[in-house]
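User: Hand in any protein.

Assistant:
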Amino acid sequence: MANLDPIHVQGLDHFFGAGDARKQAIFDINLTIKRGSLTILMGPSGSGKTTLLTLIGALRDVQTGHIRVLDRELNGADETALVQLRRRLGFIFQAHNLHESLTATQNVLMGLQVHGAGDAAKQRIAAHHMLDLLGLPDRRDYLPGSLSGGQKQRVAVARALVSNPEIILADEPTAALDKASGQTVVELLKALGQQRGATTIMVTHDPRILELADRIITLEDGRIVSDKTND
């Protein structure tokens, strides 16, 4: 893993729609995210948080400006390059998007299988370890239909983290979790930054976890209006 800052955003604008319906959602965002840090994006609904997150994650095309992620320029990158980059990232969304016909362990294993075939026994050990860290040792073989909403979300978190991604992009990962489970997830993300240099950007409205962030960026109407570092 390179020691360079993994994320650079420069002069970023973004629009939705076309013609008279065209609307600007992101205005001249300039941002550098340090390796191993936990950055929180805050702001009211419609402020551009999720749009910015998905642009950094190469899930939307960069229209104007530049985003450089893990030394890869996203503006103008072809789909092959974008797919290769996404495999180095971990995504946690509000919707858990679990496969209902697969057990918790099998769902987590999917986070490893996108990287190709590997040692099946080692992959299963890694999946079980991640589920255990998230408080689900007795739910490994449960189907999603037998899990609570919070348990499903923790399985989705395990799936995103099991491959040791270099960057983790999380959209409201604690929204479906109680205080203790939410704290566990964020502390795990923090530990991955400290121990492995994983960089996390998290969209949240959850005031319970702000003290764990290294940096809090607030957006309003598509613009950064506050950028604070926690001491």
